[in-house]
Amino acid sequence: MTRIEDIDWEKKIQEYVKKAVFWGLLIIVGLVIVFGTLYTIPAGYGGVLMTFGKVEPVAIPAGIHAKIPIIQSVVRMEVRTQKYEAEASASSSDLQVVTAKIATNYHLTAENVPQLYNDIGLAYTERVIQPMEQEVVKAVTAKFTAEELITKREDVRQEIKTLMTQRLQPKGIIVEEISIVNFDFSTAFNDAIEMKVVALQSSLAQKNKLEQVKYEAEQKITQAQAEAESLRLQKMEITPELLQLRQIEVQSKALDVQLKAIEKWTGTLPLYTGGAIPFLDIMGVAK
User: Fold this and answer.
1) Using one digit for the tens of pLDDT, what is the confidence trace for 202-225?
2) Rounded to an integer, what distance in angstroms lies between the CA atom of residue 16 and that of residue 133?
3) Lower CB count within 10 Å: N or C terminus of the chain?
4) 115: Cβ–Cβ under 8 A, 6 or more apart, which residues?
5) What is the domain partition of the chain in residue ranges?
6) What is the pTM of this model?
7) Burial tier of 77 (Cβ tally within 10 Å: 0-12, 13-18, 19+)
8) Confidence class of residue 241 from pLDDT cuts 50, 70 and 90?
């Protein structure tokens, strides 16, 4: 029977330490293998698998996947909608300097991310989208005058979108929408536009005033024509009987005036008169 005092505790402790280190290293290696083997591709991303640095042609979809530790590695590329916004300087067809601020909404096609990564890498915005946008804006702007860039803004936007789509789609970059945030012109051009707007507003005001004068003149002409027509109709209706009736009406009014004067007379002639004594047709009244 081994006594406690005969046990070599130092040796025992060393053995326990060796075993703990062994199992600890084994667990660490196991964890490294497990976590080095398994990887995830989050939603909205596409995976690019590389073996010894060589890009595998098949894109990795979202989810949990396995790879060979050390030998294989994974690059995650976002395939959700992204936005790129920048300014581009160009010249219009009438040689006006224009600075256009363009916003591009785009996304990568998930199945094409291996080829895109292999050809361009992760810096596709700086290497492809930016120079392409500059080139397209210059080409489209040169087709329009400075004034047309304002009045035909939708046509300009649509043409930029069409060219950007044609040039980026073969690379696996899909253009969703193009927005013209702003057009900036030179100070001289802005002053000229302002003067033109003021002149146009003044011209419209003068035109409206002329239309008002014309309307009033037409109203007066119409009224005069109506009055003339009324007189013409009245002349057509005059007959001998109507003339005799009008004469009787006049005599009747004169007789009424004389009767009222007689009613007011007291029978006394005025002592002083400043003029001729009014004559009353008494005989005519008596009749």
Assistant:
1) 677 677 777 887 877 788 788 777
2) 68
3) N
4) 57, 172
5) 11-78, 82-185
6) 0.58
7) buried
8) low
